[in-house]
Write a structure and sequence with these properties.
The protein is α+β, with helices and mostly antiparallel strands. It has eight helices and six strands.
């Protein structure tokens, strides 16, 4: 039980919204009092939106700075949620793909186009690339990784045998689209 600071009534913890900055992790006001405040002050939402529109760049920069400070925390939290809600996560991804299939297909085609734009490969180089992909198919748990990413921020690599490696799925996900010397 927790006492709402607005109505001074003891209520269940489920009657309070979360707030990570407080000791108990809950808001000071109960959900009912907060809703009553929002209904009594409809201009508040409009003022917040207006402030955001006038200071959009500053708000975005504050958000980015805050997230960069807590990047590892957010990543761990997201991984934990996905592990606990696997089916819901997969369903959400399926729904997203159904709504945005054209964008997703365009992204894949752009990437494939980047792969096709590389210099012509010899038969031996193609066989070597096919061998790396075959290894990853035979031994589940491995993925083909571009050592220097095809679409990196600082550098862009090529789809050639010397730029490919087989990594475990976990290592490849951790590495992402980055280049580490």
């Amino acid at each position: 039980m927790k006492i709402c600071t607005k109505c001074n009534v003891a209520k269940l913890f489920t009657d309070f919204s979360r707030n990570s900055k407080t000791k108990d992790g809950l808001q000071h006001h109960c959900k009912a009092c907060k809703l009553a405040y929002q209904r009594a002050n409809p201009r508040r939402v409009a003022l917040v939106k207006k402030y955001y529109e006038q200071n959009r760049e500053a708000c975005i920069q504050r958000s980015i700075t805050s997230q960069q400070k807590k990047r590892e925390y957010y990543n761990a939290k997201m991984r934990k949620w996905v592990a606990e809600n696997r089916e819901r996560h997969l369903q959400t991804r399926r729904e997203y793909y159904a709504r945005n299939a054209a964008e997703d297909i365009a992204r894949v085609r752009r990437r494939q186009g980047r792969i096709r734009d590389t210099s012509p490969l010899t038969q031996a180089e193609r066989a070597e690339i096919d061998g790396i992909y075959m290894f990853c198919k035979v031994f589940s748990g491995f993925e083909v990784d571009h050592i220097v990413p095809l679409n990196g921020e600082l550098v862009c690599g090529l789809h050639v045998p010397t730029n490919l490696q087989a990594l475990s799925i976990r290592e490849n996900r951790i590495k992402g689209n980055t280049f580490k010397e």
